[in-house]
Amino acid sequence: MFSHLLSFFCAHRFLVWSLTLVLLCMAGILVLRGPYDTRLDGIFSKGSVSERAMSLLTQSGLSDQLILDIDATERIAGLDDEAILWMETIAGNLKILPGIQEVTFHILPDDLGNSLPEIVRTLPQLLPPPEPRNPEEICTYALRQLMTPTPSVTDFLRYDPYGLLPPILQRLDALRNASGLRFDVTKSFLCSPNQRHALIRLTLSVPYSDTGRTAKLLQEIRRQTSCAPEGIRAHLLGAAVHTLGNEQVIRHDLKFIGYLSPLFLVLLFLIVFRGDWRCLWIPLIPAGALILATGLLAALSSVIQLFVLGLGGSILGLAVDQGIHIYLACQTPRRFETLSRLAPPLALSAGTSIAVFALLMALHSPALRQLGFLAACGLLLSLATSFFLLPTLLTPRKNTAPLHQQNLLQLPRHAAWLLLLLGTTAALTLIATRLRCDFDVRSMDGSPKEVWADETLYAEIWMPHPPPMLLLRSPESPAAQDLLTALTAHPLVQPADFWPDARARQANLASWRSCNLTAWEEHLRAAAQNFHLQPPGKADFFGPFFENIRQGLANPPETPPAWLGTAYKQLRSNDIAILFPSSAEGIQEILDSTCADAALITPDAFRHALLQDFGHQLTWLACAACVVVGLLASLILHSLRDTILATLPVLATLLWTAGILSLCGRPVTLMVAIAGMLLLGLAIDYGVFLAHWKRENFPPTSTIPKAMTLSASTTVFTAFLLLFSQHPVLFDIGLVLSCGIGTAYIFARFLLPAILQRKNHANVLVMLLGITVFLSSCTTYPRRAEISLDTARREIAVPHQNVTHFQAKVTVRFLWIDLPMLVAGTADNQTRLLKMVCLSPSGATLLQFQATPEEIHSLDRAPLLPERTQWLLEKTALGLARTFLDNTPDIPDSAKWSHGGLRFAKGERHYLYAGNPLVLWQKSQRRRSHRSWLCKRLSPEGNAWLYQDFFARISLEIQAL
Amino acid sequence: MKRILALLMLAFLPVFADTSLEEFIQTLKEKLPAIQTYRGDFTQIRHLAMLDLDLTFQGTLLYETATGNLLWRVKSPLAGAFRIYQGKLAQWDAVSQKSVQIATEKLPWLKLLQGQLGDWLAGNLENLQKFADLEKIGDRQVRLTPKEGILPKVATTMELHFSENLTRVEKAVLHEKNGDTLTIHFLPPALNNTIPPGDWEF
């Protein structure tokens, strides 16, 4: 059937190509039309916690703010009058720049005394009226204040006899403490405590994502601040700086990759295909497929995420593999027959990749769905166009030796190479067990190091401990009010502290209007006369208070007073309120239980949100991808053995990539996880072609080895170039793809064929699997020459205290969840009881328990932890009890010295003691033939342990303090 | 001729005035004793300009230069005190017999007072010159115009009046920005005697 189709296409090539060009033009128009979105918001799933947080953050106006950190560290006079004058001038100049909406330098009016009338006029809206007080007490208090040698105290007493102002002014203090910003309270502008730094806040009217206009604005700001007095430097910080920094880095990287990659591809093809210019159709066809797929995406989507295009484009660059196979097949004498035989493996390799990418469309993230569509559609189109169009352009060349007969690389047969590769696999498997997960969004930020250096300095000077922040949309709405009610037990600073909502203000006004101010005034006047504060015929001592209160009641001001206005404006932007809770503990659970549109912003909260949003989706996706790939492979290969063979390179790819990531200290970030999914779909291609090659009994004339080599070369080289990029996203993708594809190639091209061509290949494969499993559970321990049991008993009989007190850092790992804790407790070895308190890193108690290694006597879980964590906490408690108790059992006479250590069993418990002097290195509990749990020492110093519960799949990393 | 001489004298007066301040500072340096501890009575008069009202308070001042410990005890018209002792600020009310601790950061003026009172009581114009511009306004009076810190925010000028024999500060006057005046008359103090710890109690 394929032969007939190919013949048809070759016979009607003009018609086919005309149609293709028309479609390309149409797609091209759609692609140029766009529109495109450059923000990273689209990567978050709709309605997810992280998407909500990002949306609120963007709309709160925080991302439209820039901070100008004026650094006078090198100025001898510091922030003297000349420096302050310059800052005031700069603030004035910047205010008139197009693109800047507001500039804040002075945060408080210079003199609170002058602001007192304005503040008192707003008091009836800010607060309910005070409780009636004894006028004599008020006068006594006034005299007491006047007797201290304190200037400017008279005005405060006259304008505030009832002491209403200090609680309001204390709210400014509370805001300062809650915001984490350290500054000198005696200055009217934001001045650091060391008097060497000042801040100017700029609110932009240009969105930070509009990089063109933002770049010009930042350039102008830098130009204006460059003429600072001697010793003063200005640092710019903000989301716009990060966006521009990322763009600069990506542009630089893509320039480097964009030039080298096509050059290499062209050279490679021309060299390998011996100057046949028609080989340049190989990369051109996927490029055309990309345009068609993008046009289709543009027709179906309202907006396209730009970074999806970049990622999708690089995936389609990998589709040159199909073209390479087809080109080589076209060089054979019976090309259509060869192509027809190649059709099933081509279809399978493309089909598995398409299936994996199509699964991305099941995610809730709009950007990833677009990526899935673009990659799947593009691969399908690339396969179709490569298979049916490429042969129309290629006819076998005359007078040349068939290319497929040239083997680029010989199969290494020497056993040493095989053992080396097997050993490396086992070692990397062992290392891969230490791989950690970190979905920190900063791992996707590729800002230049100067930007990070400025931010580090800012944090050091101004905000060493960034506080948690709660963003709340429409704080007057019923849902928001419910949330605020639920948060009553959590102290927090909110905009309503500085300017209550309209309803609260009206209620306060009504309360004040119901008071008998005249009576209050008369009583106070009489008391003041008695205390000689009221000279006859002169103005009332407390008159200014009543005068301004009456004005405030008659004409209530519509805006907060200047002293509170700046704080209010910082906390309330558009329709979003910014609240500062004193602690983040328990807030997320309250948020989850209400339907308010709110988000908790802390570095940890965002990381956990991303993990929560993507963790189970990606896990589900990985499982589904494995199932789909397996099913497709078995459907086409019709053989379980060949299906397993096809998946072996994928398994090796995942192990090697995980091991290399762990070796390089790189965690699994969001981009690594996504690249890993892509790797799954790409690595299977090599397994599929290996299975096909095996079916042909590895003939030397097969085109498959050369095609594998070429396709791996193109992919690995392109991915290798990404390792030189400065952007962490590109670097992570490059690392994953270069390691993964390289591994898949090595296994599919060399190792597995070498093993399969041995007579005992099945045994070798089983041995490989066995070695890997065995080594993954191995631990080394210090060897020692054999000693007698009595000596051993003396060495391990440490001063045996009934109670041992300790502290430790513990990380509980369960699936993708990492729960760090600080634990403190006592271990009573006589009663075999462990009493422990587990605290979160911020000091909140998570759990208290009493347990033996077999059972839990009591366990109190913190209310903030949901009930579904009970099981995990119980397993944690048992794990800690098993780790800290029963560490010095009596050594039975049946104990054996083995491989430099003392091994014995007591019941189901197995122990290994090693080192000099003997210490416990490992203990485990075995039931029948398997281990139910294992506890092993990780460090010779003896203060790090790893506990694993194999049934529950929980592990604890314990670092004693 | 006399007119010419008078004009010449007037022309040179600024030179003499400048020299006079320097000489005055030098003279004070020689005559004023260094103060390690200060115990003396005072009369504080607050003039409230808006009400044209004078409020008079009498009391005792204890001060220790090295530690900055300060006790301001008022006896009339009502009893009370505030104290800065070992870095902590407390205010005491004789009626309720209760004292309240206050963070010094909330009252930066008192922190300034603690730091500079020694210089004011000792008439150390050399040190005070760092924070204020000096001007001699009489035989024994000096005007200080604060130029940095929080003092310019609360006061326009300050005056120090010295005793006839220039051996102590007998009056300090603070002109506040709102027009009020704070005048403190210092009676002859006991200087540099050890202050027992019990004397710092309220």
What does this structure look like?
The complex is a heterodimer of chains A (961) and B (202). Chain A is α+β, with helices and mostly antiparallel strands and 961 residues long. Among the domains of chain A are: 167 residues, Multidrug efflux transporter AcrB transmembrane domain (Multidrug efflux transporter AcrB transmembrane fold); 206 residues, Multidrug efflux transporter AcrB transmembrane fold, CATH 1.20.1640.10; 122 residues, outer membrane lipoprotein receptor (LolB), chain A. Chain A is built from 31 helices and 23 strands. Chain A has a 12-stranded antiparallel β-sheet with strand order 16-15-14-13-12-23-22-21-20-19-18-17. In chain A, α2 packs across α11 and α13 packs antiparallel against α27. The two termini of chain A are 72 Å apart. Chain B is of the alpha+beta class and 202 residues long. Chain B has one domain: Clam (outer membrane lipoprotein receptor (LolB), chain A), CATH 2.50.20. Chain B contains 4 helices and 12 strands, in the order αββββββααββαββββ. In chain B, strands 1, 2, 3, 4, 5, 6, 7, 8, 9, 10, 11 and 12 form a 12-stranded antiparallel β-sheet that branches. Chain B starts with a helix and ends in an 11-residue tail after the last strand. The relative contact order of chain B is 0.18. At the A-B interface, α6 of A face β1, β2 and α2 of B.
CATH topology of chain B, by name, is outer membrane lipoprotein receptor (LolB), chain A
What is the helix tally of chain B? Answer: 4
Would you tell me which CATH topology of one domain in chain A applies? Answer: Multidrug efflux transporter AcrB transmembrane fold
Give the helix/strand class of chain A: alpha+beta
CATH class of chain B: Mainly Beta
Q: Report the CATH C-level class of one domain in chain A.
A: Mainly Alpha
Largest sheet of chain B: 12 strands, antiparallel
